[in-house]
Amino acid sequence: MEEDKELRRVLEIHDALREVTQLWVQSEDWEEERAQRLREEAVLLNHKRYFRSIPAYRALAEDAGIGEEVADMEVIKTDLMFATDVFKSYDPALIDNAEWQQMTLWLRTVLNRDLPGDYSKVKSLEEWIEKLTEAELNIMTSSGTSGQYSFVPRDHLTRMALMTNSALVFQPVFGKVLENISEYDAAIMNFRGGSAGVQAASNSIANIVQNAYCLYDMHMPADAVRILQRGPRNDEERKFIQEFERVMTTEKDLRYEVMLDHIRESVKNGQKILMQSACYQLKELCTKAVQQGSVIFPQGSVLLFGGGWKTFEGEKMGKAELLGLVDAAFGLKGDRVVEGYSMIEMNTMMTCCSEARFHIPPLMEPIVFDEDLMPKPGAGHTGIFGFLDPFALSYPGFLISGDQIDLWHGECPCGRKGYAIDGEIQRVPGKEVKGCGGIMASVKA
Amino acid sequence: MTTIEELCREHDLLTLGKDNIVRVPFLVKGTLRVPPAVGMERIREAFSAKEKATGKPAIAVSTARLEDAQVLREPVLDRKTMRWTDEFVYQVLPALDPKELIERDLDRVVSELYNLPFEEVLDFLGKVSSALSACPELLKELEGLYRRTATVADLYIDYSFTSLGYLLNPEAAREKVDSELASFEVQGSRFLDTWVKVSDTTVGGLSQELSPTKAKETSGDYKSPEKMYLRAMPTRQLHLTAGNAPAIPIISTCRAISLKSAAVIKSPYGATLGGALVSLAACAAAPDHPSARNLSIVYWPGGDERVEGVLFGPDAFDRIVVWGAPDAVASVKSRATFTKLVTLNPRYGMSWVGREAFDNDDFKEAARRGAVDTMIWNQKACIASFVHYVEGDENQVTAYAQALQKELAEWDRIAPNFLDPAAQGQIRRLRRGKLLNAQWMANKQNEGDKRNEGISSVVIVVKGEFDMMDHTLSRMVIVRRVSRLEDALPFLNHSVSTVGVFPESRRMELCDRILARGVSTTYPLGMGDRMSTGMAHDGMKVYSELVDWKNR
Fold first, then answer.
1. B434 to A109: CB separation less than 8 angstroms, yes or no
2. Under 8 Å between Cβ of A312 and A436
3. What is the C-alpha end-to-end distance of chain B, expressed in Å?
4. What ipTM does the predicted assembly reach?
5. Which chain A residues in 74-93 lie under 8 Å from chain B, judged by CB atoms?
6. What average pLDDT score do residues B325-329 get?
7. What domains, with CATH codes, occur in chain B?
8. Are A105 and A91 contacting, i.e. CB atoms less than 8 angstroms apart?
9. pTM given for the model
10. B480 interface with A at CB cutoff 8 Å
11. Chain A residues with beta carbon closer than 8 angstroms to that of B498
12. 3-state secondary structure of A219
């Protein structure tokens, strides 16, 4: 009963935080202190919930001599935050050996509920994720350059929070997102399907829009990066690698040509276009478009991009140069070009403003950590980005990322106030590049 | 003859002065280059300007350039807690003109240095070595100075400066040259000194055979044209040394001098004092010796394009030797495209413990030996052991890991460890992240002192693969259980420098299979830093790589 009461209160706080954020997205005056109080209340309630239901969290707390009752936020920040790598704290051999029952037991350690059922007959990662979906658990994956996956388990409420919160952040671009996106054609510079973080967003967009075109017309299996990193072990995996190489290398130019043809078709039909891309693919497509003559997108079209350059660091160009190329290729500029930042462990998005700041919505509490992983108070620091996410209900949402940021706080000339990440986001030295573009093996022992 | 102490007194060098400023000299082609007098005000201004320009905190800004000098800023360590204090030591070094380091007068170098008898080179090394041995008090003082900022434990520092004379020992240098350049049963130094006949007959070339017109003897023809001669021609060398072990710059210097190289040695940040001492010894002992006149020992911040753009240019050097981190090696490789590189890559060692260790109580001795190999230069050396594969059941592996933890605790006791904040952070990250479910066995330091408490050394029993990018390189041992030692073979590659095996019978059994996978050395567990004349380094006979083999 107590637990239900706590959850109800957390959900009430979610609604209240969204109300505040509604004002924030419209750059209207909002009560920062109230949002702070709401977040803190939700975090302390979630601490109790995690302590009782998430084994890894309880172990961390007990190891630090902390019990169910915590009243001081500093205790949470100093002792109870996980690294985002906690979602890859399993033995990778379990995946290679298809020991899915064991993987399920591991998943339970970072999840707030039991996972009954027999997973021992599951044959592949794809099938495991499907079976978990049947158990009403959404698994979002991300693979770094090492090929070891993060698995972030979301129950229905947490998944809905992610979708609703993201839609809220994008409201200035699309208005009431879900209804308005359906009017668009989508140019998705990604695979046709898969469970990786960005891919999940692509899948959602593709399901809503009028017509969706994907750059790589193939399904990206959940274990793709692992297969590529360790090499194929059976005919199915060999076939996948062949297809992957065909699509990514042999047909690379052709893929961009086909995408441009689709775009021209949408333009001809007067359809607004929603393009979603990572930086490298965007550069490649724009370069080709400029070479062939610009394709001016209809009014109302939008480009969403982000994710940095991953393993394409050698191809990196400055943001201003990239935006110039986008303008030259498609006539998109200003608020029609939106750079986003997020990670699969987070239940919201951030967008970059004209002042080169990624504004952090009041939905979560940012924290900067020193290199020794101790929290620094307030803003105005460069350090490792961590956050307290009140919306993570099914997994521990007190997390330290592998990104290095400059945390800013104030009133931005763009109209928003509050916390923001100022300037470029970099990986913490020594941390692997994250994302599905990262297909570069590191040394294993 | 001047002494090192006299030079130090005359120029006010290598002593900790007002405001923690130390003046450090360079050697530029045999001339002692001393820094100008620089006061604290200028130093503060330079660092504060750089902090402002880069947006970095003081601890992250370690070098600043003045118009006429360079300044290195090193944080002072509290040797009791092994934590950084708020104090810094400032090393003031001369400014550097990279153009004057490059040797373009090859005719002069050939006559003065390349054709210098090897015995005279050894004589020079002997004089330098004696000059260093003749100033024990200064060496002691320098040890004290180095101790203020050195991140390595005192135990290692005690051996750093006293071993300088040994590293430059002429007899050891002779053995290395004679063995590493030896060929056709001829000692290496002969190839370095002169042309050595290696064949009485040569096979004529095809073009000679195909020539449509007949050969005709002329008055200038050599009477025995069929003989072939070989020589190890010295080269102009640039050594970019690393600071992970303080001996590295001295090893590089000894190689360059022994091989009659017109050489430039770049000292690393954090280990400039050794190079400065050798510079002073050369100037004190034999300033006019050709080996001194063609030697430069300097410093610049790695990556400084103003300097490296000149030194990495075409024909500036015949060899560039790079010791260092992967990004440093990659960066040099990409820019010095016209010069032959000898890269001494970052690598790591392993320890393999066979099931025989559990027959008696031998696993404790195996753990002791494993700890010895782990602690080679405080696990900073590329031959130090980072990962231990243990053949046994889970209980046995746990027992080994516990024994290893005890051994490391003993090392912590006699040589308290400095774990920088980034390494402390990395341990926290692993413990609260990827290695959450691993078995952690940590030794702590400063227990009860909330501000300074932390981990000193740690053994982590990991199930499954470990990503080497996650290693702290500071008294962290990853232990992995294997059913058979052979199961560890797939984890061998060119990144692995050495594998220590216990017991010896298993080493003999697995030796070739280990070495065929890119590893350079296997050794009996506990003997990871053994050295011998003629041993290979990173799969190379390095001396042979540093000369140009010429035919006549």
1. no
2. no
3. 42
4. 0.86
5. 81-86, 88-93
6. 71
7. 4-11+98-177+234-344 (3.40.605.10), 348-524 (3.40.309.10)
8. no
9. 0.87
10. yes
11. none
12. strand
